[in-house]
Amino acid sequence: xxxxxxxxxxxxxxxxxxxxxxxxxxxxxxxxxxxxxxxxxxxxxxxxxxxxxxxxxxxxxxxxxxxxxxxxxxxxxxxxxxxxxxxxxxxxxxxxxxxxxxxxxxxxxxxxxxxxxxxxxxxxxxxxxxxxxxxxxxxxxxxxxxxxxxxxxxxxxxxxxxxxxxxxxxxxxxxxxxxxxxxxxxxxxxxxxxxxxxxxxxxxxxxxxxxxxxxxxxxxxxxxxxxxxxxxxxxxxxxxxxxxxxxxxxxxxxxxxxxxxxxxxxxxxxxxxxxxxxxxxxxxxxxxxx
Length: 290
Hints:
alpha/beta; 5-stranded mixed sheet
């Protein structure tokens, strides 16, 4: 049976994870793989728990939330995909001189996912915006947020890489800022798997394939990466997909090797403690592959 992979969200932001399968890096390590893309509202964690997939894209923050809800048998986080927040702010007009205090007094259609919202608030706070003066609007799923903005609602919208660049390509909105720009690296998104996979003979080959996929995604021309990943993103024009990948590369989302460093882990935890989204700190050893 092929190794079954699944991202929690579908975005070029997870290029290294997708490239393991799409660019054949796992195959070259002797691992046959398949890729399942998530449906709207589908819980990747639940799919993993049901045994329908083997390895998922997740985030260490998901482990903290699960642990505080009493879960004990949680996936182990085995590798880091992104060291930066790759979400994008889209405005109604081009604004090369955008500053985050321009959000004050405006309506920002925000992604209310657990991690995206915490990181958005952290970014705005650290870039000088008064959070109490921003009207954060919760309009549901990413597709609903995009549709609402296209329909004239809100002054800005907060979306993951790919869709913002497509909107700009169409003239339906303009990328004004990246949420993670200028902030310290942290453990944003990772690869997680059950203990059975972590203890299997397949893990070293898997990590070897991912390490190569991450380096390729980071170091190759964005247009080359886009050409390989394009079949996974039929809704994105190739120009928009290329711009999204280039944005992740320039931002440094895919910097570093496969390991989740303790420093990045602690930096992410600092954000969640500041935001009040977790009750206490969680030891690295209880969440990550050592």
